[in-house]
Specification:
Layout lengths: L3 H11 L3 H9 L4 H14 L4 H14 L4 H17 L3 H10 L8 H9 L4 E4 L7 H10 L3 E5 L12 E3 L6 H12 L5 E4 L7 H8 L3 E7 L13 H13 L4 E5 L4 H10 L6 E4 L7 E7 L3 H10 L4 E5 L3 H13 L4 E4 L5 H12 L5 E4 L11 E6 L6 H8 L9 E7 L4 H11 L3 H12 L9 H9 L3 E3 L5 E3 L12 H22 L4 H8 L14 H8 L1 H4 L1 H14 L6 H10 L9 H13 L3 E3 L6 E3 L3
Parallel strand pairs: 1-6, 1-7, 2-4, 2-5, 3-4, 5-6, 8-13, 9-11, 9-12, 10-11, 12-13
Antiparallel strand pairs: 14-15, 16-17
Helix pairs in contact: 1-2, 2-3, 3-4, 4-5, 7-8, 9-10, 13-14, 17-20, 18-19, 25-26
Length: 611
């Protein structure tokens, strides 16, 4: 009996339903399906360069099973590609001065030009401007870029940027001016979308592409969430643009999924940039004398360093300890004005100092040869930790990311959360303090914002505060949204604590948190946990290794994971020479990495590798 998908495709072809036939063939994983599908693509779109390239890729896949037919067809298609002019390559060379596209960007741009919504996740320092600048050149209409980031020094094409500090009326006039201007890209900030008048003027434009940089900030599951970004996302969805390009920093899968949901991206093209970097070493040092710990590490290593600390006070303490040990150091913190911050960063980038100690306000730097990154306080989220870590070793040479962990640091984070997510007591204290004549600058801005949004306060015509009467007392306010956000923030802190305290491979732990699943043959060699295993009891005590292998041989028929196997071995009282359950887990992971055990793909259950 023939293959049902092939029979269905033949029937659709006979009836002239070519699009349905191609979709049917795409459902099959058989080599002949790739061959027939490639033939069909060339029949339907013989002069569409992107589709001809797609057909060549399918012929390539089918060539191992149908070498003569597939290779002959592929050669003909490639001959056409070589002879035919490619307008996209002409634009790339003439406008952008490049001879070829980066590996994935051509495919993503093809999807954008075909009208596909696209969601791209990459470390913040990654330059993705070609995706929207090139697309804007090829599309007839206008492109809208929503971003809080400063423009690059020399963008390939001119952009029409509107200052977020301008009044609403001025912004509307400039949007109208842009409609008739030669520039293809209008640059706005998320705050612009708070004004219905501006939204209305933008909706009058012929926008063919909307680009949302830092799109994950519109998702309330992200640690970088802002209400302004969420409001902008709602406004963009209301515009119903033909295509949206959402550019996100590195984020866990649940945040990326939430970003797609907020922007209503239906079946988007998704791409996550490769982020596993074998040249990076991940370690944790449990220390209360953090400045001295960092100073000692730097005296035993070379190269520049970046140190992150949570508060201005912590920045000062670490910097003082480094300077006392003769290490040239500059500081960057939120109490400095913008000019001071910029001067400090430039001094460090010109290598006038070896170490920069900064709060998490530093997001980007042109310096690529950073050999060491120390986190004097553990970050508020895994997303922030990863973005900070990715600043290390961008020149491709080895670099270290060391988290200095003290469980007492949690008090600092909780104090910050008290400020970010005020409770009813703080709201009431703020309200009474303002009524008593306290200066606005001395009060919690988040608390003031909630009181204004809930109708307890408003600014009067002279810039003072008016106190409004409300039936609901402050102590009975519904703060469920604020409380939920705080719970999410506390969960992120626990996630960072889990990273610091894990006894398994740190590099694997990070990869899995960001949705990447290393294969069974994957080896780390780049974290303190795996280094400890290499030099620890797995080599020093072969009896423990043999005892574990014997236990797995006896228990493997029960199909247990690492956790279940470790518990079973402990429960059965095998002679483990005083090892704990956690030690056995580490040993099991090491035996998988060394190839003695296999984690079977249909459930990660362990068995002996009978090579």
């Amino acid at each position: 009996m023939g293959d049902p998908l092939l029979e269905q495709a033949r029937k659709q072809l006979a009836e002239g339903r070519l699009n349905e036939a191609e979709s049917t063939l795409a459902q099959s994983d058989k080599p002949w399906a790739n061959l027939h599908r490639a033939d069909l693509i060339l029949l339907r779109a013989p002069f569409d360069r992107a589709r001809v390239e797609e057909a060549c890729a399918l012929y390539e896949e089918a060539s191992s099973d149908f070498p003569d037919i597939a290779r002959a067809s592929m050669e003909k298609a490639k001959a056409w590609l070589d002879a035919a002019p490619d307008p996209m390559m002409e634009v790339l060379q003439e406008v952008f001065g490049r001879s070829q596209f980066p590996k994935m960007e051509r495919k993503l741009i093809d999807g954008i030009l075909q009208g596909r919504h696209t969601l791209v996740s990459a470390p913040r320092a990654t330059d993705l401007s070609l995706l929207y600048e090139f697309s804007a050149c090829m599309l007839e209409g206008k492109t809208l870029l929503v971003t809080t980031r400063l423009p690059g020094e020399n963008p390939a094409i001119k952009m029409f940027r509107i200052n977020p500090s301008l009044a609403t009326g001025e912004v509307r006039e400039l949007v109208g001016e842009f409609a008739g201007a030669s520039e293809k890209i209008l640059v706005l900030g998320p705050d612009h979308f708070r004004h219905p008048e501006i939204q209305e003027s933008i909706s009058d434009l012929r926008v063919e592409l909307v680009v949302f940089e830092e799109a994950h900030t519109a998702c309330d599951r992200s640690s970088a969430f802002t209400q302004a970004a969420a409001d902008a996302a709602k406004a963009l969805v209301k515009m119903q643009p033909p295509r949206i390009l959402a550019l996100s920093g590195m984020a866990p899968p649940h945040v990326l999924n939430g970003t797609g949901e907020v922007l209503k991206l239906i079946h988007p093209v998704r791409h996550t940039a490769p982020f596993d970097r074998p040249e990076l070493y991940w370690g944790v040092s449990k220390s209360t004398e953090k400045g001295n710990t960092i100073a000692t590490a730097l005296q035993n290593s070379s190269g520049d360093a970046l140190v992150f600390a949570q508060t201005p006070e912590n920045v000062g303490e670490v910097a003082a300890a480094l300077k006392e040990r003769g290490i040239s150091t500059v500081v960057l913190h939120e109490d400095m004005d913008a000019v001071q911050q910029e001067r400090t960063l430039r001094d460090w980038e010109r290598s006038e100092a070896r170490v920069l100690v900064t709060q998490p306000i530093l997001e980007e730097t042109i310096k690529t040869e950073i050999r060491n990154i120390f986190l004097a306080d553990y970050p508020a989220s895994l997303e922030l930790f990863f973005e900070q870590a990715m600043l290390a070793g961008r020149d491709g040479d080895p670099a270290n990311i060391i988290l200095l962990y003290d469980s007492g640091d949690k008090a600092t984070h909780l104090a910050i959360l008290d400020t970010l997510y005020p409770d009813r007591d703080l709201l009431e204290e703020t309200h009474e303090a303002l009524r008593g004549g306290a200066e606005e600058e001395t009060l919690n801005p988040r608390a003031l914002n909630i009181l204004v949004r809930r109708g307890y306060l408003r600014k009067d015509s002279e810039g003072g505060w008016a106190f409004l009467e409300k039936e609901t007392p402050i102590q009975r306010l519904d703060l469920s949204e604020v409380e939920d956000r705080r719970k999410l923030a506390e969960e992120r802190l626990r996630e960072m604590e889990d990273y610091a305290e894990t006894r398994s491979c740190r590099r694997r732990w990070i990869l899995e948190k960001f949705g990447e699943k290393p294969g069974s043959d994957w080896k780390c060699g780049g974290c303190d946990r795996c280094k400890a295993l290499e030099s620890g009891y797995t080599k020093r005590d072969p009896e423990a290794k043999e005892a574990v292998l014997d236990a797995v041989a006896e228990l493997e028929s029960r199909r247990m994971t690492v956790i279940g196997m470790a518990r079973a071995i402990m429960f059965l009282g095998r002679p483990m020479k005083g090892l704990t359950e956690a030690d056995i887990k580490e040993l099991l992971h090491a035996l998988v990495r060394d190839g003695d055990l296999v984690a079977n793909p249909d459930g990660d259950w362990l068995s002996l590798n009978r090579r």
